[in-house]
Design brief:
Largest sheet: 7 strands, mixed
Strand content: 25-35%
Helix content: 25-40%
Structural class: alpha+beta
Radius of gyration: 15 Å
Strand order of the largest sheet: 1-2-3-4-5-7-6
Number of helices: 4
Number of strands: 7
């Protein structure tokens, strides 16, 4: 049975969550196509301090980060979802959709007409989420999938 996400708070990234965010990334390794995460609080603080993201949102459950998404400017009028991650124990709860919709709303708020994202073609958990949220495939190269 999926977790209840009705009490989860979506907020802007704040440095006070860096340690919990590092823990979330490190617990998410198996969901990232063999990518090994080994983040520390200091690395997250530095990474987020130097980020050029237009927005970075966290999903917080009882002071624990369980989801992350950021949004960048790809071109002058195109927003791009950089990273979306939901703790594996929260997969299937709809939390990814909530975070993705937050970025779509931010894109509209910024009066940007397009939002895009990239993923790998074998990302079997994320691609259905993206298409359910209205993104569609645009094949650009063999190793990546571009969705608009």
């Amino acid at each position: 049975m999926p977790k209840d996400i009705s009490n989860i708070i979506i907020c802007d990234y704040e440095p006070q969550y860096a340690k919990s965010l590092a823990e979330m990334w490190n617990k998410s390794t198996e969901a990232w196509n063999g990518n090994l995460f080994n983040y520390s609080e200091a690395q997250i603080l530095d990474k987020e301090l130097n980020s050029t993201a237009l927005a970075t949102y966290l999903a917080i459950d009882n002071d624990t980060v369980v989801g992350y998404i950021n949004l960048f400017r790809d071109e002058a009028d195109i927003a791009n979802v950089g990273m979306l991650n939901v703790l594996p124990s929260y997969h299937g709860t709809g939390l990814g959709k909530v975070l993705l919709k937050r970025c779509v709303l931010k894109t509209a708020e910024l009066k940007m007409p397009y939002i895009t994202l990239y993923t790998w073609a074998g990302n079997t958990k994320a691609v259905p989420l993206y298409t359910k949220c209205g993104f569609f495939w645009q094949k650009l190269e063999a190793s990546a999938t571009y969705l608009v």
